[in-house]
Amino acid sequence: MKKEGSLLLSDYAAEIAATDVLDPDEFNPILQGLYGEVGGIMATAKKNVRERTAYPGFKKAAEEEFGDTLWYLAAICRRLQIPLEDIFTEAASYGEFKNVGAASDITNGALAYIAVPVAATASLDATLVRLGQSAAVLLGGTPARNDLIAFARAYLDAIHAAELAFSEVARGNLRKARGTFLEPQADDLVGLDFDSEFGIEEQLPRDFKIRVNQRGSGKSYLQWRGVFIGDPLTDNIADSDGYRFHDVFHFAYAAILHWSPVMRALIKHKRKSNPTYDEEQDSGRAIVVEEGVAAWIFSRAKELNFFEDQKKVSLGILKTIGEFVSGYEVEKCPLKLWEKAILDGYAVFRQLKANQGGWIIGNREQRTIKYMPLEPEK
Predict the structure, then answer these.
(1) With bands split at pLDDT 50, 70 and 90, how would you rate the model's confidence at 92?
(2) Global confidence as pTM
(3) How confident is residue 94, by pLDDT bands cut at 50, 70 and 90?
(4) How far apart are CA 308 and CA 302, in angstroms?
(5) CA distances (Å), origin 351, targets 86, 294, 302, 340, 370
(6) CA 291, CA 289: separation in Å to the nearest integer?
(7) What is the phi/psi pair of residue 232, to 5°?
């Protein structure tokens, strides 16, 4: 990705293309998706009007909805082989808008901060009505270029009325889409090793083997390096569902995300040499957040046969996880990495549950977690 200050619409269109996995010859799913996202913008605005100060997340939610709408508009332009920047260049050349950037940038269709309005011209309600109307015109066939330009104009008006920055909307959507749909590359994982600057005694282990054994009492026990860690667990529910083995999810987070306040507490590897990390990243609240994430995902997983034979985790689940961990270091991890941690963790969980125990083998360098059966009883 380009540096924060140099994102151009042409860059956005080029880098977002890889996230478009829909049929390149189909328009209806794209048009319907765009219309749905415009509805999401309206719903977010309505919630903000209704709840006011009780909805402090309006800006973030609105940026996401506008970003998703931009994604679909880019997909339409891609199918029509019309440069996205050309549509916005024409849309911005009217009314109270000005183009920011050198004249040569505009000529080349590469606008760094396209269409910054000089002054507010309409209320948010009025601009959203026009946005919805222009979206409806696009439905039902191959969109005309003039209709796309009209939609882009309404889109820019609505972004301005919502007091959002177009450049932030585009950057945020690019991060979200690539982080959700594309396998992370080495460059994407730079800086996602959260304890490499700490001593070995304060790091999550680079590779580990955790022995999980279920005894006759029905409780599961954990051992690391021959020492029992944590408390014996049962399912704590009438409907036995294997939750006694749920610590595997914490080990999956440690191996794949390089994050697990729970595992740090279990093996006493908190980063106490830095009071800020110890207090804000490794202690009680962070532990509760991680346990909450694991428990919430488990409730969803039960409905999906614990992700057996599944290769994806729904975007809705991944987005909710992102909200759960906001403010903690792991929020930097792309959602695609969370998807890997969930699917790989549940693959091991299913084997632990079926065999009533086993070895959990984690490797942080390779970001992997695997299962190995227990040795036969003598």
Answers:
(1) confident
(2) 0.80
(3) low
(4) 10
(5) 54, 18, 15, 17, 10
(6) 6
(7) -60, 140
